[in-house]
Amino acid sequence: MADPAGAGTDPLGLTGRTVVIGGAGTAGMSAARYLMTRDVHVVLADDRFASRDADAADRESAVAAVAGAAELISQGAEAVAIADLLADPSWTADTAVVIVSPGFAPTHDLVARAAAGGVPVWGEVELAWRVDAAGLLGEPRTWLVVTGTNGKTTTTSMLADIVERSGRSGAACGNIGLPVLDAMRATPRVDVLCAELSSFQLHWAPSVTPAAGVVLNVAEDHLDWHGTFDAYALAKAGALRGDIAVVGLDDAVASGLPGAGRRVGFTLNVPRHGQLGVEDSHLVDLAFGAGRLLPADVVHPAGPSGLADALAAAALALAIGVGRDAVEAALTDFRPAAHRGEVVATRDGIRFVDDSKATNPHAAQAAVAAYDRVVLIAGGLLKGASMDGMLTAVGDRLAGVVAIGRDRDLVVEAIARHAPEVPTVTVFTGDDGTVNVHRQGQTEPVLMSTQSSSAEASESDTAIAVMDRAVAEAWELAAASDPAPDAVLLAPAAASLDMFAGYGRRGDAFARAAVDIAGTSASR
């Protein structure tokens, strides 16, 4: 089937046709809401919907459990279980395009069947780009794209603040939470889209060509989705298809990625002509003529990763003509959102720092590098990523490690290989739900709590009990360390879904435990 874009008087060629939305989550529902305004027959395909064989009450209950689905169905959309859709041999013949949520890998059955049937597969961001380029929501907007393994959200938030400070109407959107299409439909109009895009989103948005884009860094992550590291890196390079391609020069992979237009690098070292960097303790621009931007010590979050994010945000803003004063003012005032290097409590001069957003080893490495010495709480779902590079780089900064989560043993094994002198503690639950602690040198774990052993205790209760104990163990390591560490740092290097509903819940549990130990109120 031919790509429908540009057909006849309808630029997208979708009016009156069927579009299958794969996944009725945030991105999918955003696409569905827009398409319903274009007289498109929308089919929401999601595993959460009950099968056609289920009774009416079960089908209605399943629809009610998916936010916004009932309203769209009342307007004419159709909701089907993915298995039911795939069981219909005619579905591809009736479908103009499939729009998939970011979590749908290229190997997903829905994607494979669409490809076999000649049906184009887009992501919600690809749809947004085509809608914008066609002028269906007014004059096309300025797109600025931010991607990288670590630092995307902070950089995007900084960038949006800079754009707003310049007097232009901008919005942080994409992977940061607000779907790009929703930002485009917002009132008052948004003129500059500061789009944080994940590797998944970039893979499914091959047409996006931003005014400027940045790849901050590239390290092992999401290999289960992309299949290979090269495929992951190539997806990230999609941010560099525009007129100005900004790359992190201190990152071996990002610095070597191909770009379509003018290439601008940023570095934590003294910049050369055409670069941004740090000189005489100031952020400096030698690419766009802005010169000295602001003192490095006013940038938050502090440390190398915060400075790198600030340089990247400044580069994108300067690339579209934003002035130096707006860059300086916005970055001076910027404070990171929760769970991104947030100090939540302090005791005896030692900070408790929540960097639960550090969901891969590269991000955790950056979090540790912001301090001279830390006790680290790490673990969760490593998703096949190795901690070896992280520990080689920052193992000498560790005063102790508390390992939690499904891949806790992999954390301890990595410490043993690269920093065997660092004391380690493992906190986990037994089969009966009790919280156990295994300290380095002990032959058997010690039962520490039975508070979660009740059959009525929820999974979240158990996870919170583990985090409570982990923070207590981390504090004991910190108190015993000489010299004292700067921080007890939650930078898990792993995803959270083995224990918590998201990294925010994990960070909140850490903060509550830290406040209890410190005897203070959280600084949120």
Automatic annotation (TrEMBL):
Pfam families for the chain: Mur_ligase_C, Mur_ligase_M, MurD-like_N
Taxonomic placement: Bacteria, Bacillati, Actinomycetota, Actinomycetes, Mycobacteriales
Function: Cell wall formation. Catalyzes the addition of glutamate to the nucleotide precursor UDP-N-acetylmuramoyl-L-alanine (UMA).
Identification of the protein by name: UDP-N-acetylmuramoylalanine--D-glutamate ligase
Domain Mur ligase C-terminal, residue spans: 339-428
Keyword line: ATP-binding, Cell cycle, Cell division, Cell shape, Cell wall biogenesis/degradation, Cytoplasm, Ligase, Nucleotide-binding, Peptidoglycan synthesis
Mur ligase central domain mapped to chain residues: 146-252
UniProt source species: Gordonia westfalica
Keyword ATP-binding recorded: yes
Listed PANTHER family: UDP-N-ACETYLMURAMOYLALANINE--D-GLUTAMATE LIGASE
InterPro entries recorded: Mur-like_cat_sf, Mur_ligase_C, Mur_ligase_C_dom_sf, Mur_ligase_cen, MurD
Superkingdom of source: Bacteria
Entry EC no(s): 6.3.2.9
Pathways involved: Cell wall biogenesis; peptidoglycan biosynthesis
Family: Belongs to the MurCDEF family.
Residues reported in the UniProt entry to bind ATP: G148, T149, N150, G151, K152, T153, T154
